[in-house]
Write a structure and sequence with these properties.
heterodimer; A: alpha/beta; Rossmann fold; two-stranded antiparallel sheet; B: alpha/beta; 2 domains; seven-stranded mixed β-sheet; 14 strands; 42% helix
Chain lengths: 288, 318
């Protein structure tokens, strides 16, 4: 990837972050923290990695994405809207009565959403089923799913990990957003799941650890996923991220898991994100 | 086969299920895939596995994941049949069925065997008498409870043809085959009147239907003409059939191998109390857990026999 391309993706990720703030502010509730930590990987998936067509969201040959940590719908919706699946202007209708942007992803109302999720641990199972279907049909479709590091406390995740490994689903990329925080506090205090890399290795995964907020490191990780095709091993990314990244007062702050910014906080968040965006713009111009 | 021998034949509906899967696949329906959770020999999906091993996936003892996997696979146009015992399908994996199959209204068929007390010796931990209640409560879920081999195989085929989630309830116990396959038709949302009568309507489902038929023979000898209605589809309920029976017979007895809470009896009561208040008596498992024993002994212990249907009718009619 050229430096310019990486900068462009960073700018897009910043716009996705603005969408997260717009939507949760509009909803007066929702989950900004884990959406912000995942904004970079969501951007990478929808703008670089996945074979998708916003004009044809039901294309049978498309790659699939399942947001297993469904509460981070603001992040997914912002990425989908930015990619052109639906108008960015609709984002503030999130969670409103009558809006198609349900609090958690609904595959029957939101263009581009491949699976209804929200109850933790379930999306990864559906992703396994999609990967099995893609292979059984003889396609080269890839399936990606994003989990939270709190989510993997659900036993169903480990059932799914066993399944993915047993059925050698090397077209499946399980991405864990390891931001280290969950509702009741740090995951290490609430329910320690470390050492995750050793666990995923032991479950038979092609395990890759990287900085999930770095476009360049994400590029390397997705290249390794690509190389794992034919290996018979499913891939697992352990993305080290910062919860709330991009908005100073939300960063690494557990209380921003599931609450919306008020008007004043909204103004500050948008000002910070606009400033980041302008810096990136200048960097792009310098590089031309 | 002579007619007499046909009547004497007993087949467990789980066996019918396994056979119907093969019949469907043999007919060229190559979109069928079957999932099991380490119970293929018991749920009889092993019959399908033997014929079509490449389309049978064992998920191990992990029912919750299995439901999600089936949901995901259905989004690619496959028609998954997912099997386990009723306790672990409807019970353990309820929330996966609700959220990953029911809410997105995916085309997954949940085929649960070993429902009710007739599991027998395994005892209460495995005797699921709550599955109809659980599955009925999910919006858009069709709930089927066939009574014999002919009906069970027809139900599997109807479930396959139906677009959307279906719950099928099968039994471990071999039960008499009383339907004539050559003339039998199955339709989702329809029940059937098996005997004509105006003294009382007996609405039964699953293996209680053949008990109700036996009871009707005994009652007839005592001058009571019971209208036996078989209700293989609990949801959507055949409202017209129930309302006509209530109107014409004035008293309704429901019989099911399921808790009296949330099953066929409550579905009938809900309908009649709103549209045609009618005295109803419910026979089923009276808010109790089961216990171990040979199936028919357990059913007898819980009053789910032809004799007790007769006794209830006589008491109800006064």
């Amino acid at each position: 990837m050229t430096k310019q391309e990486a900068l462009q993706l960073k700018m897009t990720a910043t716009r996705v972050r603005m969408g997260i703030i717009e939507s949760t502010h509009g909803a007066k509730c929702g989950h900004p923290g884990g959406s912000l930590s995942a904004a970079d990987v969501l951007t990478y998936l929808y703008f670089k990695e996945m074979r998708i067509d916003p004009a044809n969201p039901q294309d049978p040959a498309r790659d699939r994405f399942v947001l297993s940590k469904g509460h981070c719908a603001p992040g997914l919706y912002a990425a989908l809207a930015e990619r052109g699946f639906f108008p960015v202007q609709d984002l503030p209708t999130l969670r409103h009565s009558g809006s198609y942007l349900q609090g958690h992803p609904n595959m029957n109302t939101v263009p581009g959403v491949d699976m209804s999720t929200g109850s933790l641990g379930q999306g990864v199972s559906a992703a396994c089923g999609m990967a099995l279907a893609a292979r059984t049909k003889g396609t080269d479709i890839n399936v990606y799913t994003l989990l939270g590091d709190g989510e993997i406390e659900e036993g169903e995740c480990w059932e799914a990990f066993m399944f993915a490994s047993h059925y050698k689903l090397d077209n499946l990329c399980i991405i864990v957003d390891v931001n280290g925080l969950q509702i009741d506090g740090p995951t290490s205090k609430v329910m320690n799941s470390e050492p995750l890399d050793q666990k995923m290795d032991a479950f038979g995964f092609n395990t890759i650890i990287c900085n999930g907020n770095s476009i360049n490191e994400l590029e390397q990780a997705f290249m390794l996923f690509d190389r794992a095709h034919g290996s018979g091993k499913p891939t697992c990314f352990l993305l080290h991220t910062t919860k709330g990244l991009g908005v100073s007062y939300m960063e690494n702050a557990v209380e921003w898991h599931g609450k919306a910014p008020n008007d004043e906080q909204y103004q500050q968040a948008m000002a910070e994100l606009r400033a980041s965006y302008e810096l990136l713009e200048k960097e792009v111009q310098r590089n031309v | 086969m002579s007619d007499a021998k046909k009547v004497a034949t007993k087949i467990a509906t789980r066996e019918s299920y396994g056979n119907a899967l093969v019949e469907l696949a043999d007919a060229g329906h190559d979109d069928i895939v079957v999932f099991d959770a380490d119970l293929a020999e018991a749920t009889k999906t092993a019959i399908f596995k033997k014929a079509y091993p490449e389309r049978h996936f064992d998920c191990g003892i992990a029912e919750c994941n299995m439901m999600g996997v089936a949901a995901g696979m259905s989004t690619f146009g496959y028609v998954p049949f997912v099997s386990s015992f009723a306790m672990f399908a409807a019970g353990r994996a309820f929330e996966q069925i609700r959220n990953s199959i029911g809410y997105p209204h995916l085309n997954v068929k949940i085929a649960a065997t070993h429902a009710g007390l007739s599991v027998g010796e395994d005892g209460a931990s495995h005797q699921c008498c709550e599955d109809i209640a659980l599955m009925r409560s999910i919006p858009g879920m069709v709930v089927l409870s066939p009574a014999d081999d002919v009906e069970a195989r027809a139900a599997v085929k109807a479930a396959y043809e139906h677009q959307g989630p279906v719950y099928l309830r099968f039994s471990r116990l071999a039960v008499p085959v009383f339907h004539d396959e050559s003339s039998y038709t199955f339709e989702i949302g329809k029940g059937e009147t098996l005997t004509d009568g105006f003294d009382i309507a007996i609405i039964a489902t699953g293996l209680m239907t053949s008990e109700a038929l036996k009871a009707a023979v005994t009652l007839k000898k005592q001058g009571i003409n019971a209208r036996v209605i078989n209700m293989p589809c609990i949801k959507p309920l055949d409202e017209a059939l129930v309302l006509r029976a209530a109107k014409e017979c004035l008293k309704v007895l429901t019989v099911e191998e399921h808790s009296i809470i949330g099953g066929l009896g409550e579905a009938v009561c809900a309908l009649l109390s709103e549209k045609l208040p009618t005295p109803v008596r419910r026979m089923g498992v009276m808010d109790r857990f089961g216990h171990s024993g040979p199936a028919w002994e357990v059913l007898k212990d819980y009053g789910l026999t032809a004799d007790n249907i007769v006794a209830n009718v006589l008491d109800f009619l006064g």
